[in-house]
Amino acid sequence: MSVQLKFLGAAGGVTGSRTLVTFEGYSFLIDCGLFQGPKDVRAKNREPLLSNLGAKINAVILTHAHLDHSGYLPRLNREGFEGEIFMSDGTGDLLPVMLADAAHLEEEFAKYADKTGYSSHRPAQPLFTTQDVEQVSKKFRPLPRHEWHQLTQNISFRFVSAGHIVGASIVQISFAFKNATRILSFSGDLGHARSLTLRTPEPIVETDALVLESTYGDRLHPKADTIGEFGAIASRTLKRNGVLVIPAFAVGRSQEILHLIRKCEDEKLIPKVTVVLDSPMSKEATRIYFKHPEDHNEGCTHASGRIEDCFLPHHFSTTSTSDESMLTCMKDGPMIVISAAGMLNGGRILHHLKSRLPHEKNTILFCGFQAEGTKGRFLQDNANNLEFLRIHHEEVPVEAEIATMASLSAHGDYADIGAWIEKMQKKPHLVFLNHGDIKSLEAMKDHVQLLLPSAQVNIVREPSSFSFF
Ligand SMILES: [Zn+2]
Question: Where are the alpha helices (DSSP H) in 248-374?
Answer without folding.
Answer: 253-266, 280-290, 308-311, 322-330, 349-356
